[in-house]
Amino acid sequence: MTPIMSKSDAADLVIAARMRCGLTWAEIAHKLGAVVWTTAALLGQHPLTYEQAQRVCQLLELDGLVAESLQLQPSRGTDSAAMSDPTIYRFIEALAVYGPALKELIHEEFGDGIMSAINFKVDIARRPDPDGDRVVVTFDGKFLDYRW
């Protein structure tokens, strides 16, 4: 029996197929759901349903082995090589600088608790600015209070 393709190998095939088909992540997401969630899922961070996996593989002309992999539960996170990517590193840097302040402000506004990264939405947008376009990233997580 052949082992199931790894999520990282499936992601590599999705990336190649997306480029070869001339599709944007947003165009693919239009068939499945939210842009950021769909992109993360196709890069291996979320499992797709059977129907979603079939739909995206048909769109990208990929076979059932990729669809099978896209349905697996992921090992979430990022490998160390990706952490050194300048775009990803800037998110780490921003949280290193502003994380303690955000934590304090969340506690002040909501009380003792955390923002969920499971019951969570994320979005990205471009905002025109005279000094150069701005990247707007919105994290929208449910507040989970600690209950003692």
Describe, in plain words, how this protein is organized in 3D.
- This protein has 148 residues and is an alpha+beta fold.
- It folds into 2 domains: 7-70, 434 Repressor (Amino-terminal Domain) (Orthogonal Bundle), CATH 1.10.260; 80-145, Cyanate lyase, C-terminal domain (Cyanate Lyase, Chain: A, domain 2, 2-Layer Sandwich).
- It has helices at 7-21, 25-32, 35-42, 50-60, 64-70, 80-83, 86-110; strands at 113-127, 134-145.
- A hairpin with a 6-residue loop joins strand 1 (113-127) and strand 2.
- Belongs to the cyanase family.
- Catalyzes the reaction of cyanate with bicarbonate to produce ammonia and carbon dioxide.
Order of helices and strands: HHHHHHHEE
Gross geometry: globular
Number of helices: 7
Q: Based on the structure, what is the oligomeric state of the protein chains?
A: single chain
Overall mean confidence score, pLDDT? 93
Biggest sheet, strands in spatial order? 1-2
> How far apart are the termini?
49 Å
- CATH architecture of the largest domain, by name, is 2-Layer Sandwich
Strand content: 15-25%
Main sheet specs: 2 strands, antiparallel
Key features of this structure:
148 residues, alpha+beta, 434 Repressor (Amino-terminal Domain), Cyanate Lyase, Chain: A, domain 2, 2 domains, two-stranded antiparallel sheet, Cyanate hydratase
Give a summary of the structure in a few sentences.
Helices cover 53% and strands 18% of the residues.
